[in-house]
Amino acid sequence: MDGVHSGTARTALKDENTDYYPVPLTKNALRAGVVFADPYGHTLILVRSIQQSVNGPGALLSVDAQPDGTVGIKRFWKGNFLFNTSEVIGEPGFKAFRPIILNGDQFTLLKNKELSPKSGLIPFSLQQKGMPEDVFYHTMEQIINPKPLDPEMALLDLIQALHEQLIVRVSSVAGGENYMKTHPGEVIAMPGNLSGVFQAGGLWEDFSTPNRDLRLLIAIDAVLGFPDKIIRSPEDFKIPLFHSPEQVKKKLEALLSDKLSELSITYNRSDGSHQTLTLQEIIKRRAAFEMAYNPNDGIEIRWGAPENSEERATCHRHVSAGQLEKMRSVRKWFQKRLHPPT
Question: Which of 39, 114, 140, 272 could form a disulfide with 110 if both were Cys (CB 3.0 to 4.6 A apart)?
Fold first, then answer.
């Protein structure tokens, strides 16, 4: 009753006896301090908005914390902010803290009808209720970048966001590896049910990465699928004069290939040697990230090193047969890019 957890922010949108209330998806409403309640148990808090300019796209920045003790700044995009209103527990979305007033000698929560535009507070809104995922992301894109984007600039920004996400993963995975090395022979218990794999406590929550890896896969899909957005929604972009959307798409595909080969991350293998992977290489092995979240596996496996490869030769730690079987049963959620209800 007196505890706080991720579900605290996912109460029903119409409920008035809550710490948070839903806000409209507008530039003025999405200000610092507003919370984003992830449908699957994550919470982010907005901290800053960067305006779109001729030199670059806009950005909406948030802060979040992880069970492993890391705190970081995350930009709004599909790779960090998951939104879904179907088959989830509770109602997610952007919410503000519900104001408390002193009424006589008692503290009272403001009711939804009192949170009107005339109140001077961020107004109450049911805009996000049942909102389709594609409508949500398109609405947010229009808020962050109200003017048509330069296609190449927009793609480079997405690739940079993916790179940032992978850099954070380097630290997260290294944290689990360091724990296993300082506790030789220990096996971190894996939750027995599907939803528990994504939402559990203890060492599994501290060092496994199923939620982050699911987001990573969604982020990779978003980057790879960007050139097709030019065909679907050319009005959202500044198409060069005398160029068709199809021509712009081909140019973006070439740019995508070049940039993915240029950017890289480096992790330390089990023997301490450095392994550098380009984003292109990571994307080619993305299927391996559907099974790369278990800290009982060696770090090479967690970075998707192919079997019998030179990279994987230094790996000497593997999950048990029982845990491997559980991971195979969970894999369907990664393949569908969905999260079991939690």
Answer: 114
CA distances (Å), origin 94, targets 20, 26, 314: 9, 11, 45
C-beta neighbour count of 34 within 10 angstroms: 20
Distant-in-sequence, close-in-space partners of 283: CB < 8 Å, separation ≥ 6: 220, 223, 224, 260
115: tokens are: 């949170």
Cβ atoms 286, 306 nearer than 8 A: no
Look at 201 and 28; give whichever has higher pLDDT. Answer: 28
pLDDT at 289 over 70: yes
Residue 80 clears pLDDT 80, i.e. is over it? yes
Nearest C-alpha neighbor of 49 from the set 113, 140, 127, 138: 140
| Cα–Cα distance list, 37 to 7, 122, 144, 163, 202 (Å) | 8, 17, 19, 24, 22
Q: What is the pTM of this model?
A: 0.85
Q: Please tell me the predicted confidence (pLDDT) of residue 1.
A: 54
List residues bridging with 72 in a β-sheet: 64
What pLDDT, on the 0 to 100 scale, is given for residue 57?
92
Q: 321-336 vs 210-224: helix axis angle to the nearest 10?
A: 40
Average pLDDT of every residue of the chain: 92
Nearest-angstrom CA–CA distance, 50 and 52: 7
CA-to-CA separations, 205 to 36, 48, 191, 303, in angstroms, rounded: 21, 28, 10, 19
